[in-house]
Amino acid sequence: MSGRSGIDGLTRRELLRGGAAAGTAAAGLAATGTATAQSGVDFDGWFSDVSNYDGIVDRRGQDEVTVEVGVQANGSDWGFGPAAVRVDPGTTVVWEWTGRGGAHNVVAENDGYSSGTAVNEAGETFEQTFEETGISKYFCDPHLAVGMKGAIVIGDMGAGAGGEDGGGGSFQLSQEGWLLAGSFGLAVASPLIFAAFLRFRGRDRAVGPSDETRNQLKRVEEREGPPVAEEAPVEAPAQEIEHDEYDPWGTLSLVIGYLLLVVTLWVFMYFVEFLGRGPTVIG
């Protein structure tokens, strides 16, 4: 019993509290690099799966602004840099290809402009002049599914104090972020789940007679008097349980513990190997 004293001291509330803390910590880790500081500009979830978006870059006051095509993002060179730019009405935006990440193009979400067929030559350019205030969303057609998207904000709509956008944003997680949060939370919560199982198992095994049984014994004692003490028969010394004897509960505990470990490792490896688009453990 002394070996379970630390486990028995846990309450259900403490276990739930520990699991919630683990989930919160996991979400905090996974949200790194996916914060969306929109500061009053509603992109309607456009950047929810764009890993290199961290706010709107202010380029007002310039007649021409350059956006790189094929920068590090979304697991490879599948991003626009910067992803979101604020310009003045009448500004010309020039997209310049880096030559990395395969063939890319620039296509407006509303089909208002397009660079044409996807190309991968470094130094290739495409330009578009924006006259009207508003938001122009665009994407790379071959890599839209992996989150290669961008936006041009024309004018002062939703601009923060001092002409900069930032702060006060909400957090959105990509699929990879949720998987990382889940694997981290499972790894942290597994010992608590295992401890809860051992605690409730030990409590069930230590349960005494029910209230009804105790009442029946009390009535018998009142009617017939206290039981007469009898000399206990001489018994052989109790045999100590050796380590090699079978304990079904101990075996079940080990199986559950190993199962939780295997599930945790599997989720982590799935995230690294099959969803990662850069170098992985396998290579």
What does this 3D model show about the protein?
The protein has 283 residues and is α/β, with parallel strands linked by helices. It has helices spanning 5-8, 12-30, 175-205, 211-224, 248-275, and strands at residues 35-36, 57-58, 64-73, 76-81, 84-87, 91-97, 107-108, 125-130, 134-139, 149-154, 170-171. The strands form 3 sheets. It has a 5-stranded mixed β-sheet with strand order 2-5-10-9-7, with no helix packed on it. A hairpin with a 2-residue loop joins β3 (64-73) and β4. α2 packs antiparallel against α3 (175-205). The longest helix has 31 residues, at 175-205. The relative contact order is 0.15. The model is unreliable at 1-12, 24-39, 161-171 and 277-283 (pLDDT under 50).
Protein traits:
11 strands; alpha/beta; 4-stranded mixed beta sheet; 283 residues; disordered N terminus; Immunoglobulin-like
Low-confidence spans: pLDDT under 50, at least 5 residues? 1-12, 24-39, 161-171, 277-283
Return Rg in Å. 32 Å
CATH homology-level superfamily of the largest domain: Cupredoxins -  blue copper proteins
- Strand tally is 11
Total helix count?
5
In terms of DSSP E residues, the strand content is 15-25%
Q: What CATH architecture of the largest domain would you give?
A: Sandwich
Please state how the strands of the largest beta sheet are arranged side by side: 2-5-10-9-7
* Terminal Cα span: 49 Å
Q: What composes the largest sheet?
A: 5 strands, mixed
